[in-house]
Amino acid sequence: MKKQKTLSILAAAFTVSALLAGCAGGGGGTGTQQSGGETPAQNSGSGGGGGGGATEKLVIAVVGPMSGQYSDYGSTAKAGAEYALKEKQEAFKQLGFDVQLSSQDDQADPKQGVAVAQMLISNPDVIGVVGHATTGASVTAAAQYDQEKLVMVSPSATGSDLTEQGKKIVHRICARDDQQGSKAAIYAKNSLNVKNAFIMHDKQAYGQGLADEVKKQFEKDGVQILGYEGVTAGEKDYGAVLNQILATKPEMIYFGGYYSDAGIIVKQAREKGFTGIFMGGDGYDSADLVKIAGAENSNNVVFTSTVGDVGATEEGKKWIADFESATGNKVGIFTSFGYDSMGVMLHGLEEAIKANGGKKPTREQVLEAVHNIKDYKGKFVNVTFNEKGDNEFASVYVYKYENGQKVYIGEAK
Prior knowledge:
By secondary structure, this protein is of the alpha/beta class. It has helices at 9-20, 71-94, 110-122, 135-148, 177-190, 205-221, 239-246, 259-271, 287-293, 295-298, 314-327, 335-355, 363-371; strands spanning 56-64, 97-105, 126-131, 152-154, 170-172, 196-201, 224-230, 252-256, 277-280, 301-305, 376-377, 382-383, 397-402, 405-411. Helix 1 (9-20) packs across helix 3 (110-122), helix 2 (71-94) runs parallel beside helix 12 and helix 3 (110-122) runs parallel beside helix 4 (135-148).
């Protein structure tokens, strides 16, 4: 998922601290989150205790939008990652390490991603990054981490370009946009019987990347494309472009972007009389879309996601109950993948510690251990990283909104 004046390391640290202090996470239905503005030394995840003898501190950062209109992605991933870390902290103390969590807010902004990355690099205790949550911030931050061999594992950055730039530090457990976009288009044609569509996007890395892949697959499969239009994210009135779109009489409108804009576009299109299908990617996966668009207007809104139905199994239902009881948070869009991303990072860290004779590993040793992970059995997704850092087990799933509720349809084939 998804602007660079060069900063010095110290200046970046000061800027991030000033910008982020007191920022609260949050987002529709995801429960109250802690502030995303702590420096690595301040936010310890769960505190000390346990184990015998002195322990050496290691820090894993969780980075994403913890505030602002995309906060659902960062805050839910953080909640899952924090839960996974708390489960393993005592085991690491027995190995002689106090593994702490640092939550950082990049506001889904590529420039802010750079500032956060520079600050994390400057702290020698930071050994890995779970994140970033959105594609744009991931791409710019990765260029910084790559210089210092600081490994990242994203739960949700889907942009295809992220892992095509040859940076070994980059990993993700979710599917790519070229997988999600093509499968969305195939599903629209074969299961929704769509014969023509108008394609929109928000001009951002994630949204335009998805729209491009949908367009490519529709052209391949013979679905008529009535138009292709970019709009500016954050606008309040999309009336002019919607008039242009609706004049083409589309069976479906595909919008590549996030729930905050999608909700407005759905609402305004419905008010103009559009009764057809809306479709998008996992950027639609938020209760806030329904709040913005209205429950009735949200009917016939279909979206793909890189995350399956967490509650589809008895084991998943138990995990949800345990998580919500332990944290006081509701499971949100990327809670499960935040959990598994942290699991992957901790597995790699443990392997690096063992390979280093029980001593504190270097960043490069942790990078090697994570990069070489094969057949890791996550709670919600299995993980084998290919040479690019993509997960060979990643899948795409389909959901829809019905009477204000998210309904799981199944895996996209």
